Predict the structure.
Amino acid sequence: MQSEFNRAGAATSKGAISIRNVTKVYDPDGAQVMAVDNCSMEIAPGEVCMIVGPSGCGKTTLLNAIAGFHSITGGEILLDGVPLCGAKKPLADQGSDRIVVFQNGALFPWKTLAENVAYGPMVQGRWPKAECIERARTALQEAGLGAVADKYPGEVSSGMARRAEIVRALINEPKVLLLDEPYRAMDALTKQIMHEALLEMYDRTKVTIYFITHDLEEAIFLGDRVYVMTTRPCRVKKVIDINLPRPRDYHTLTSEAFRLLVQEADEAVHEEAIKAFQAGEREMA
Amino acid sequence: MSVLADDAFATGQRPAQAPRRQPTGFALLAYRINKGFRSPTPYLMLLGIGLWIFAYWLLCEGLQLPRFEKIPGPVTILSDWLSTEPRQGTSIFTPVYYEHIYVSCRRIAIAFFLATLLGVPLGLLMGWSKTIKDYTFPVLETLRPIPIMAWVPLAILMFSGYETPVIFLATLASFFATTLNTMLGVQSIDESYFRAAGCLGSKKWDVFRHVVVPGALPFIFTGLQISVGVAWFSLVAAEMVSGDFGLGYLILSSYVNSVTVPMVIGMLTLGFVGWFSSALVRWVGNRLMQWHVKALAMQGR
């Protein structure tokens, strides 16, 4: 059987993001706050790029710039060599080639899961309306959500809702999936199931993933490459290549190679966490 | 990933044990009534009503305390209200009683309809577009606090006859409540829904249709319930000043003619009709917002 996502995977051949010297200065009430300072990354097509850093360091600012929610004040961002935003056009257009999965979930509570998934293709006019709903059902079925396709998001667990939100993103065949701490509020057991589901979806689609987290083990388990960011202003502190074989499952978590990678990353993150903590104390004083 | 693909796992059902199906239709109604009578709520409600009527009876008819002797007690009112030959002229058997109810209800229906028709779209636009809000908000906020009674002379000068000024006043009061709540409803929608809609390739009209309208709906219906109450309030006030029929007119004309029983009958009728009208609005709202009702039910409310 040919899957909804295999077809998507065939179409999604690219998805390279170039972040070049990006700077963002916020200007609330005249006080200039530098959120991102001269930040550069090259993300290859189909790469799972994990961004780790202390809370409030400006990771989300970069995501907002890629998605077209916020403007940047310097540098440029390109998708497959085509500029999204830069000096001439500080705010990128929003589009279904870059889809965000939000921290607190943003399924429309007034639509059923199937209607939510069908929404993107429907407003884009990709297929006739009935076909959109039909394909949405198929996609939910493949993600193990067939039984709850006609329920409203308020009626299902947060884990199911988040999974449905990823299905809603992937049905549009995006080049890039942007995830902003999607599993932050979940317990460890649910999180593990979510990780495995995400890995499985990734293995099918090979979509480029930009994933923000402050959970180091999550980052190493899921990612091809982990960017450890400095505390505000946000800069790249350390890049760790993760050479763990794919497909990965929970056995990976107990391997020696995994443990060593965690150790390596932990030092860099710990240093920044302390800086962030002290900076926080200073701001309070 | 066989575990995840298993639908039984996703719904949390145990396949070995047949799950109890939710009853529908009449069976569901019977289940709810049965459950309702096992909770203290209906008994406490009946007891509360009984106690209130007893206190009222005691003050006016039982003890006949000073200052209460002119006020008709529950026995006097009920015997007149249900009598085929009421001593003070108004009962459920006199056609004029229904004429008053009909006239007031018709005015409310027209006023509420007009106010909703104007208020909801204006509120939606004000919440959605900063420009439209900048144009309209200061004017609206200045007019809104003016008590409806202060509009009475203007309404009489502007409109001829009895009907139009009364409907105008009820519409005006209702309109302000609806507009303001609708606007607040749009502003209360989480920013991430707009962002999600943008990511998924929505055009402006899609955002309006699929995010702004449904997202504001719970607030709109709260507003409509307030607005129907406000409409009754201002309607009765207007009928007292200028009118030939209606419950407000019944109350004031009874007072002027020193027949106190129809006065109280008019008041109680207003209470019941008003209650019914907001229950109707609530019912329509719940029908339109199954997602909201279900989400609240999941939270145990």
The interface with chain B takes residues 67-69, 94-96, 98-100, 102, 104, 106-112, 119-120, 123-124, 142-148, 152-155, 160, 168-169, 172, 193, 196-197, 200 of chain A (CB under 8 Å). The first strand of chain A starts at residue 17 and ends at 26. Strands of chain A lie at 17-26, 33-43, 48-52, 74-79, 82-85, 98-101, 176-180, 208-213, 225-229, 236-241. The first helix of chain A runs from residue 4 to 11.
